[in-house]
Design brief:
The complex is a heterodimer of chains A (294) and B (283). By secondary structure, chain A is mainly α. Chain A has 13 helices and 2 strands, in the order αββαααααααααααα. Chain B has a domain of 145 residues: Orthogonal Bundle (MetI-like fold). In chain B, helix 3 crosses helix 14, helix 4 crosses helix 8 and helix 11 crosses helix 15. The chains are: A mainly alpha (294), B mainly alpha (283).
Chain lengths: 294, 283
């Protein structure tokens, strides 16, 4: 990764790196180290004394039924958001890839929700699905469905999933479209000449050729559902009703910022950190493999 | 197109139009909601067509924010906060990353790879996993409720640095050679050759990072406690409160529309760079 022709100043490169390194040290490494440090201590109620407790906080967190329930919810939530947003984006991208009139217009009309903040997307869906004032919420009730996400935990989860997935479709759409456009058309034409119908062509040629994009999006969407949906949940349900929509990231926030449980919340942070590292490693391996083989 | 028959030609249009509709529907309802009075919405009798109160609602949201039941800073103030935050984050990330990438690619010095990895590893440390300690650092530095506190901790960027590094690697050696022969020092080369060559990359990154900055949620929620520092995205969720039927939904919807306008405009107007930036930063 080194160029052949370079400049030979000794001090300048350090000065150029200084701002970025200062920020990473002060706001990334130091706090992350502190999170690890605090996760081994138990604070008393007033935050005056702390005792070193080894892995006690981790033990408490990992055997807490509330934490495990939240982990299960996070899995359901992330899997649903990922599947919903990727499946609909793939359908739209396949349609937009056919050379139809107005393809560019459709692309523009499908890309802008990317710019809507997760919390604002939440507000929009709240307004539509509110049980008494929302146009869809009202309709559901008129049809005899007892729709009220403030009481019914499953409905609340559904609402959060819809609002979170809606926002992510345009991102997936743009990547799938780019992936489809990179597929060599003669390959597909050859299959058509050999008599493969549209659905056969899709499942045995296009979908496998698209798998690098699909895999990449899978990781990105899981990360999005894990971390970036904090705003969606905070704005829509605040984790409720009960704890029906409290995901892991929301729980870190509630335990740390609201309940001020420093040790427990730090242990949760470290566990999440390990999850992110795992996902990043998977993603990185994928990038490397693509560099080598493809 | 392989099947040219008219049998299948309408299908893509139908599916795509349906997709566009699903995307547009909540936005349309927000627009409709922002043109009626709070009473109509609260009674659950909001029609599907716009009303006549657009001017009043937007004017009130813009200069007062608050209505009968919601208390909020004026939208103009919150938009300004968001704009400052998004611009400082986007431009700051670009500035800090472009010089780091320049140092890593065009110089040879002890610790080069170590520093590069230090920047790279921050990819694995999103705010969400170090909430409280980071908050403590910012609070110890006295930066709560300030713009530096809101923006500086978010300015480090592994992705932007990686993107610039990748681009700098593709610059031909003889261009650098020629510049050196002509007597250009490293700063001159940076300013007169590298930056002009990076224009497209900078524009593409700007779109992505502006939206990243504008849509921040957890960080401003922690760092700002004073209402006058509310960004529009935070302000709007505070306006909703518990989401009662009896609230000034007309003003909330006007605020939602105003909150979406700047980032959506940036994406639509800078479409070409946006798609390039999106596909390239994620490589």
């Amino acid at each position: 990764m080194q160029r052949r022709v370079i400049f030979d100043d000794k001090l300048l490169p350090y000065l150029l790196l200084a701002p970025q390194l200062a920020i990473t040290l002060v706001f990334f490494f130091w706090p992350a180290a502190q999170a690890v440090y605090y996760s081994f201590f138990l604070q008393d109620a007033f935050g005056l004394r702390q005792t070193f407790v080894w892995f006690e906080n981790y033990k408490v967190v990992l055997t807490d039924p509330l934490y495990l329930a939240s982990a299960g919810r996070t899995l359901i939530f992330s899997a649903s958001v990922t599947f919903l947003s990727m499946a609909s984006a793939l359908v739209l991208a396949v349609m937009a890839d056919r050379q139809i009139r107005g393809a560019a217009v459709y692309r523009t009309l499908l890309m802008w929700p990317y710019a809507v903040a997760p919390a604002v997307a939440a507000v929009l869906w709240l307004f539509v699905l509110h049980p008494t004032i929302g146009i869809l919420g009202r309709t559901l009730r008129e049809l005899g469905i007892p729709w009220d996400y403030k009481i019914n935990g499953h409905q609340a989860m559904l609402l959060v999933i819809v609002a979170a997935a809606w926002k992510q479709v345009s991102y997936n759409f743009l990547f799938f479209l780019a992936g489809l456009q990179a597929i060599q058309k003669p390959v597909i034409e050859a299959a058509a000449i050999d008599g493969a119908g549209p659905s056969r062509r899709f499942w045995s040629i296009i979908f496998p050729l698209l798998s690098p994009t699909t895999f990449f999006l899978l990781v990105v969407n899981l990360v999005y559902a894990f971390f970036d949906t904090f705003g969606t949940i905070h704005a829509l349900t605040a984790g409720g009703p009960g704890k029906a929509t409290e995901t892991l990231i929301y729980k870190v926030y509630v335990d740390g910022v609201v309940n001020l449980d420093l040790g427990g919340s730090s242990a949760q942070s470290v566990i999440l950190l390990i999850v992110v590292m795992g996902l990043t490693a998977v993603q990185f391996r994928y990038i490397e493999s693509r560099v080598h083989y493809g | 197109m392989i099947e040219a028959g008219s049998r299948t030609a309408w299908l893509p249009h139908l599916v795509l139009a349906l997709g566009v509709l699903v995307f547009a529907f909540p936005i349309y309802m927000a627009l409709v909601g922002s043109t009626h009075d709070a009473g109509t919405i609260g009674r659950g009798s909001l029609p599907l067509s716009p009303g006549g109160l657009a001017a009043e609602n937007y004017a009130q949201a813009w200069s007062h924010g608050s209505g009968m039941r919601v208390k909020a800073p004026p939208v103009s103030r919150m938009l300004l906060n968001s704009l400052v935050m998004a611009l400082v984050i986007a431009l700051g990330k670009i500035a800090v990353s472009v010089i780091s990438a320049y140092a890593v690619v065009f110089f040879h010095f002890p610790g080069r790879m170590f520093f590069f990895w230090m920047i790279f590893v921050t990819l694995m440390l999103p705010v969400e996993v170090r909430i409280i300690p980071t908050f403590k650092v910012v609070s110890d530095l006295g930066l709560i409720n300030t713009f530096p506190g809101l923006t500086v901790p978010l300015i480090a960027s592994a992705t932007a640095t990686l993107l610039f590094r990748q681009f700098f690697m593709t610059i031909p050696d003889n261009l650098v050679e020629a510049a050196k022969i002509d007597g250009a020092g490293p700063l001159r080369f940076f300013k007169d050759i590298l930056i002009p060559l990076s224009r497209t990359n900078i524009a593409a990154l700007f779109v992505i990072l502006f939206i990243f900055g504008w849509n921040q949620y957890l960080w401003p929620l922690l760092i700002t406690t004073s209402r006058s520092m509310d960004t529009i995205v935070i302000g709007i969720t505070k306006m909703i409160g518990t989401g009662d039927a009896q609230t000034d939904w007309n003003l909330i919807m006007a605020t939602a529309v105003l909150a979406m306008l700047p980032p959506v405009a940036v994406v639509v107007l800078m479409q070409r760079w946006f798609v390039k930036g999106l596909v390239e930063t994620e490589k």
